[in-house]
Each structure stands twice: as C-alpha cells, then as structure tokens.
Amino acid sequence: GENVGLHLPTLSVQEGDNSIINCAYSNSASDYFIWYKQESGKGPQFIIDIRSNMDKRQGQRVTVLLNKTVKHLSLQIAATQPGDSAVYFCAENRWAGTALIFGKGTTLSVSS
Amino acid sequence: ETGVTQTPRHLVMGMTNKKSLKCEQHLGHNAMYWYKQSAKKPLELMFVYNFKEQTENNSVPSRFSPECPNSSHLFLHLHTLQPEDSALYLCASSQEPGGSGNTIYFGEGSWLTVV
C-alpha cells in the first residue's frame, strides 16, 4: 500500500553540523505535511508543518522543504544540538476527514 | 505539557485481565484518536472520534474497545490481549478529524506489556 516513508532509518551527526532528514510520499493528492520529533519515552511532538501550496517553510533552527514534482519532503536542522537526538517522523494528510498517516521514523543521533 | 494527558503511563497485564487506558485533552478539540506504536513500525492509526462519534476503525481487533463519553475524554478498554499487543498506545487530539492544516497533538503514551 501507499505509505509515507523515510530514506534512512538512522542518521548520525556531530554537534554543530546541519542535519537533513528526508521523507518520500507516494500520494500526489496529499496536501498537508507535518514533521514530528519523538524523544525516548515520550509522545511525538509537533515541529513544523507545510501545505502543498508552499515549497519551503522556516521555523526556529528548522526548515521544511517540499518538492511536489518528486514527492519529497525534507527537514533541515541547523546547528544540530545533542537535545535534537530523537526519532523524527513525517506525516501526511491525504483526504479531508482522515487522520494523519505516518511513515517510519529516522533516528537522529548527535554526538558532542 | 502537550495538553493531552494519558494514564496510566505504564501497564502490565495478563492475557485474561481487563484493563482500561484513559486519555483527557485540555485543548478544546473536537477529534480524538488512538494510535499504536510498536518497535520498528510506523505509528498505526486505530480509532478516530469526532464529537464523541466514532468515524474510523482501522480494522482493530475487538479485544480493543474504545469509548468516548465526551469530546475531552477517550478510553481504550482492553480484554484478553495477546503478547503481540504489547506496545506504546498514544492518544491524540486535533481541532477537526482531518483536512489540510489540521495538526494532531499527542499525549505521552501508555506503555502496555501483556504477559
């Protein structure tokens, strides 16, 4: 079936580096995307979202890029910190009235 | 503090037990959800409620029985579970049950172990 997936299950970076976490989606009808962060022992926490009428959105130290042509979503974290270590999920909304569908996560490990 | 509170945080139960998970949201949202999170798997949607009415059951076995007495409270009643049901059960809420721009907010989850 169609799923939102991530390219890499794990990503290791050094503190201070920029991190890029990727996600591919298969349904061109999806019009809303969210990135969540899940720390160990906690529930997923909203980071940033983007609608399909945009190709870029920036938050504090985070940027989400959307490429509808190749159905690709990415999360960029600037100056990665040890506190950014977590599992990151992308999620898509496919149809009005249906809950978000999540892909597999990418585990980000930040070393000092 | 996400505005979605789940209890208990940890639960160990035998296969013949009956237990319940509780969720309360303080965000004034209309939609509530149960998700299941198992190791190495994506979050799986289980149930969706909108204004206390169930709008989606994602082929969940009947040993999981949800209850939504009002828009702020959601329960998941558990009965004769299997060891493979051991997982993190996440409650969530959103203003509406889907649609563009509708962000879902999660609780901290209830860790369930079936022995």
3D architecture notes:
The complex is a heterodimer of chains A (about 110) and B (about 120). With about 110 residues, chain A is mainly beta. Chain A is built from no helices and 11 strands. Chain A has strands at about 5, 10-15, 20-25, 30-40, 45-50, 55-60, 60-65, 70-75, 85-95, 100, 105-110. Chain A is globular and about 40 Å long. The N and C termini of chain A lie far apart (about 40 Å). With about 120 residues, chain B is an all-beta fold. Chain B is built from no helices and 11 strands. Chain B has strands at about 5, 10-15, 20-25, 30-35, 45-50, 55, 65-70, 75-80, 85-95, 105, 110-115. In chain B, strands 2, 4, 5, 6, 9, 10 and 11 form a 7-stranded mixed β-sheet that branches. The N and C termini of chain B lie far apart (about 30 Å). The mean pLDDT of chain B is about 90. Chains A and B meet through strand 4, strand 5, strand 9 and strand 10 of A and strand 9 and strand 10 of B.
Name some characteristics of this structure.
heterodimer, A: 112 residues, mainly beta, six-stranded mixed β-sheet, five-stranded antiparallel β-sheet, 11 strands, 52% strand, B: 115 residues, seven-stranded mixed β-sheet, four-stranded antiparallel β-sheet, 0% helix
Helix content of chain A: under 10%
Number of helices of chain A: 0
Oligomer: heterodimer
The end-to-end distance of chain A, rounded to whole angstroms, is: 40 Å
Low-pLDDT parts of chain A are none
Q: List low-confidence stretches of chain B.
A: none
Largest sheet of chain A: 6 strands, mixed
Largest β-sheet summary of chain B: 7 strands, mixed
Please tally the β strands of chain B and state the result: 11
Strand content of chain A: over 45%
Number of strands of chain A: 11
Backbone CA Rg of chain B:
13 Å
Q: Whole-Å distance between the termini of chain B?
A: 31 Å
Protein chain pair with the most extensive contact, residues per chain: A-B, 29 and 28 residues
* Estimated helix fraction of chain B: under 10%
Class computed from helices, strands and strand pairing of chain A: mainly beta
Shape summary of chain B:
globular
The helix-strand sequence of chain A is EEEEEEEEEEE
Task: Label the overall shape of chain A.
Answer: globular
